[in-house]
Amino acid sequence: MPSYLLNHHLTTPLDIGIGYVAFFGLAAAMIYVLVQIFKQAGGRKPWRLSQAEWLKTLLIFALARITAAVLSVVNQLLSHETTTQNDAAWTSLLTSGKAHPSILILLMVYLIIIAPILEELLFRGILMNLFWPDSFWVPILISATVFGLAHQSNTFSSFLIYFSMGAFFAYLYRSTGNLYTDIIAHMTNNLLAAVTLIMMILH
Predict the structure, then answer these.
(1) What is the pTM of this model?
(2) Which UniProt keywords apply (predicted)?
(3) How many CB atoms lie under 10 A from the CB of residue 78?
(4) 12: alpha, beta or left? (left if phi > 0; alpha if psi -120 to 50)
């Protein structure tokens, strides 16, 4: 979805307006479909977070970020990569110079808001309720593995970064049963990633 917007050179107000409608329309349709599948898979409707769930979300998120930071250093040492292939792809999109600034705003909206909702519905809400729903750890491992593979990892050490992130998010969902906890943690993670990317671009 993000690369499509860039590759079609939307520059005029009409093109940009159509791009916005198509972007949010497609995103809404995808979320709607995934929510329906999530319900059919047995996922319960998420409600507001309790104080205990907020605290658990904060703790798991902190552990996930610390683990990712350590594994990023390992990835640099073993694979000599300063950034993962997934982050490099996003940097390339944001610095390509092909898009109107308003389209770049859409890319950030996708990264920070839409992608976390879609990914948590798919990788946690649907996947973990479809496969071995009565097991605690098996769905966590499956979800983390698929999540890691989906993030364009080209080395085992970079795969471990996303695998660990997926495992922490999957554990959070399994232990709370509330998909909102994962969506909030994932949005916060992507917000930090977006800020980091913007700072890299500006410098």
Answers:
(1) 0.86
(2) Membrane, Transmembrane, Transmembrane helix
(3) 12
(4) beta
How close are the terminal C-alpha atoms of the chain, in Å?
A: 27
pLDDT tens readout for residues 87-121: 777 777 666 655 566 667 888 888 999 999 999 99
Could you read off the pLDDT of 140-179 as tens digits, one per residue? 999 999 999 998 788 898 999 999 999 999 999 999 999 9
Decide if 167 contacts 175 (C-beta within 8 A). Answer: no
Q: Give which of 127, 109, 117 is closest to 167, Cα–Cα.
A: 127
CB atoms under 10 Å from CB of 54, counted, come to 13
Amino acid at 68: A
Domain encompassing residue 174: 2-202
- DSSP symbol at 11: -
- Whole-angstrom CA distances from 112 to 60, 86, 136, 139, 140 are 19, 15, 29, 25, 23
DSSP run (H or E) holding 27: helix 13-40
Let me know: does 43 contact 148? Beta carbons within 8 Å: no
- How many domains is the chain partitioned into structurally? 1
- 3-class SS at 134? coil
